[in-house]
Amino acid sequence: MNTPSAAPTTPAPAAPATAPAAGAPTGPGRRGALGPVGLVLAGGISVQFGGALAVSLMPRVGALGVVSLRLLVAAIVLIAICRPSVRGHSRADWNTVIVFGLTMAAMNGLFYQAVARIPLGPAVTLEVLGPLALSVITSRRAVNLLWAGLALGGVFLLGRGGFSSLDPAGVAFALGAGAMWAAYIVFSARTGRRFPQADGLALAMVVAAVAFLPLGIAGSGTRLLVPTTIALGAAVAVLSSVLPYTLELLALRRLPASTFAILMSLEPAVAATAGFLVLDQSLSLPESLAIALVIAASMGAVRTQIGRGKATTLQPAPDA
Question: Where residue 31 falls among pLDDT bands split at 50, 70, 90?
Answer without folding.
Answer: very low
